[in-house]
Amino acid sequence: MMQPDLFGAARDDIVLSTGALFLPGFAVAEVVTLLAHIRTIAVCSPFRHMITPGGRRMSVAMTSCGRFGWTSGREGYGYTSHDPDSGQAWPLMPPVFRELARKAATRAGFADFSPDTCLVNRYAPGTRLSLHQDLDEGDMSAPIVSVSLGLPAIFLWGGPMRSDTRRRIMLHEGDVMVWGREARMNFHGVEPLPPGNGTCRYNLTFRKAR
Ligand code: SIN
Ligand code: FE2
Questions:
Q1: Which ligand lies nearest to the CA atom of residue 156 in the structure?
Q2: How confident is the model at residue 1 (pLDDT cuts 50, 70, 90)?
Q3: Given ligand 1 and candidates 190, 191, 200, which is best to mutate, with the most ligand atoms within 8 Å of its CB?
Q4: How far apart are CA 78 and CA 61, in angstroms?
């Protein structure tokens, strides 16, 4: 049982830097439900390997749910209200997603987080996400809430400059990270997943796109 301390954070929470909190196992009880919802989302808006404006195929497969979804192509990248592959609105954000994101944000000191998008990433063994900042969201006062599912992976947590030193954090299924305020523009990425047995890692990131 995690005991809240004087500041409201639980003892097992790990402050990575000001504005960034690692909540190991925070979503463990919801893992099965979250994975079932990902399968449903992918029926309407299947995972796809997007193309960067520079013409490179991303090794991470992605889809989205919520009012907006993130897309990339030769013409640029950003949030859209429709899935360009299906022409339909993105699948609705399941209430259990929204509530989990809100609960995690509250724990990290971001009250009333109301995400309008959830980006769903799928990492097969060998897949990585290179070091980047999340800069496409219109509301930078809102945090990013990230939920890890499936295979573990090493998350790279840097600073506001690309050259800042990085921490390597092993993320397991059910782990949650929240970053905002001073940490909102910090560089981060995911190291290549080691060769595996056919399963994948999934990551949900909740954001306020508009
Ligand atoms: C992201 O940076 O958008 C995803 C991070 C992750 O997969 O853990
Ligand atoms: Fe990111």
A1: 1
A2: very low
A3: 190
A4: 16
